[in-house]
Design a protein that fits this description.
Layout (H helix, E strand, L loop, with lengths): L8 E2 L6 E6 L3 E8 L4 E8 L5 E4 L23 E11 L2 E14 L2 E14 L1 H4 L7 E4 L12 H7 L7 E5 L8 E5 L2 E2 L9 E4 L2 E2 L2 E5 L1 E4 L3 E3 L3 E5 L6 E4 H10 L3 E3 L2 E5 L9 E5 L2 E5 L1 H4 E5 L2 E4 L1 E4 L5 E3 L1 H4 L2 E6 L4 E6 L7
Parallel strand pairs: 4-9, 5-8, 18-27, 19-26
Antiparallel strand pairs: 1-12, 2-3, 2-11, 3-4, 3-7, 5-9, 6-7, 7-8, 10-11, 10-28, 13-29, 14-15, 15-18, 16-17, 16-22, 19-27, 20-21, 21-25, 22-23, 24-25, 28-29
C-alpha cells in the first residue's frame, strides 16, 4: 500500500474513521471483517483490548436485529476454535476465536484474531444497543487471547507513527472520528498537546494530579487514572465520588447522583489537573438533563478500587492521543470551531 500523508493530518497515512455519537453515551464506527468484507458497527474502546462481534452460530436470535459474522462467507477466514469469555462492567460475552482480515476505513489488518460471540448477557445483546461488537484499543497485556488490532497493525509495520487519536464531538451525531497513525491539526493546536507518561501499559493509565470542585473540595491527589472511550461517565473511588456529590448538593439515586435541574447553572466548575495542566469541566459538561426538573451528575463510583476512569464526559471536551512508541497519552483543548 502506498502511504500518502494527508494535508493537516500529522504523521497519518490513513483517512479518519468516522464515529457516530449515540446520545453522548457511546461512539461507534464501521469496520469490515472477511473477504468480501462483512460490515459491523463497533464501539472503539480504549478500556479493553479484544475485538469481538456476534456470530451466526449464536442461538440467542441476535442476528435478527444485529449484524452477525459468517465465516463460511469469507475466503480469508482461518479457524482457531479456542473458547473465550470476556467480562465487562456492563455484562459478559462468550464465544470462540477466529482469524480473518479486518479493515478499519483504509487500514487493512490481515490474520487478525478476534472473537465470534455465541452468547451475550442481556445488556450487550439488547435491541437498543447501537453497535454490534467492541474493538478494544488497550495494550496487549490486557488481553488473554490475541494481539489487539492496533498492536497487530503496529507489528505489521502499517504506521509511520504508532499512535491513534480520538475526537469525540458531543454536539452532533456525526463529526467524531478516530485517526490511526497520527492526529488531526484541523481539530487541535499541536503546541497545546500535554504529553502524559503512561504508568502501567495495560490500560492507557497515568497519574492524575487532582480533581478540584470549585474552591470547596479537592480529591484524587496523585491518583491513578485511565482514559477510556468505552465508558460514558467519570468514574472514581466510592468515597471521593460521594464527597463530590455531597459538595454539589446531589442525592444518590439508583447508582447515580441527581440534582434539581434549576441548580445546574449555579454549580462550580470542576478542574481535573493532569501533568500540571488544568482541564476545566463546566456544569453543562458534567451534568445531563434527565427531565422532570432533574439533572444527573456525570459521576459514578467504583467500589473497591482507587482508580479514576475518565470517560466520554471528559474525552468529548478534550482531544486525546494514544502514543504507543513514547508510552504517553496526549490531551489537548479543541479548537474553538470544534467546541461549540
Amino acid at each position: 500500500m502506498e502511504h500518502i500523508v494527508l494535508e493537516n493530518m500529522i504523521l497519518s497515512s490513513y483517512e479518519p474513521e468516522p464515529l457516530v455519537n449515540n446520545m453522548n453515551a457511546a461512539y461507534y464506527g464501521e469496520i469490515e471483517i472477511g473477504t468480501p468484507g462483512q460490515k459491523f458497527n463497533v464501539l472503539f474502546d480504549t478500556g479493553s483490548a479484544d475485538l469481538w462481534i456476534p456470530s451466526v452460530l449464536t442461538s440467542q436470535g441476535i442476528c435478527g436485529y444485529r449484524k452477525c459474522y459468517n465465516h463460511q462467507k469469507s475466503t480469508s477466514y482461518q479457524a482457531n476454535g479456542q473458547s473465550m469469555t470476556l467480562q465487562y462492567g456492563t455484562g459478559r460475552m462468550m464465544g470462540k476465536l477466529s482469524q480473518d482480515t479486518v479493515k478499519i476505513g483504509d487500514l487493512e489488518i490481515k490474520g487478525q484474531t478476534f472473537g465470534e460471540a455465541i452468547y451475550e448477557d442481556a445488556f450487550l445483546s439488547k435491541k437498543g444497543t447501537p453497535f454490534d461488537g467492541i474493538l478494544g484499543l488497550g495494550f496487549p497485556s490486557l488481553s488473554q487471547y490475541a494481539l489487539p488490532p492496533f498492536f497487530q497493525a503496529m507489528q505489521e509495520g502499517l504506521f509511520e507513527k504508532n499512535m491513534f487519536s480520538v475526537f469525540l464531538d458531543k454536539n452532533h451525531p456525526e463529526g467524531s472520528n478516530i485517526v490511526f497513525g497520527g492526529y488531526d491539526e484541523d481539530v487541535i493546536d499541536a503546541d497545546q498537546i500535554n504529553w502524559v507518561p503512561i504508568t502501567s501499559p495495560k490500560y492507557w493509565q497515568f497519574n492524575m494530579d487532582s480533581v478540584q470542585i470549585g474552591d470547596q473540595l479537592t480529591v484524587g491527589s496523585n491518583a491513578a487514572a485511565i482514559a477510556d472511550t468505552g465508558t460514558s461517565l467519570l468514574v472514581g473511588p466510592q468515597e471521593d465520588v460521594q464527597n463530590i456529590a455531597s459538595a454539589l448538593g446531589a442525592t444518590a439515586y439508583q447508582g447515580l447522583y441527581v440534582i434539581d435541574a434549576t441548580q445546574v447553572s449555579s454549580l462550580p466548575d470542576i478542574v481535573i489537573k493532569i501533568n500540571g495542566e488544568d482541564y476545566v469541566l463546566e456544569p453543562s459538561d458534567y451534568t445531563v438533563n434527565a427531565g422532570q426538573n432533574l439533572a444527573v451528575l456525570g459521576f459514578q463510583s467504583l467500589q473497591g478500587s482507587n482508580l479514576w476512569i475518565l470517560g466520554d464526559i471528559f474525552l468529548n471536551k478534550f482531544y486525546s492521543i494514544y502514543n504507543a512508541d513514547d508510552r504517553t497519552v496526549g490531551f489537548a483543548p479543541l479548537n474553538n470551531n470544534n467546541n461549540y
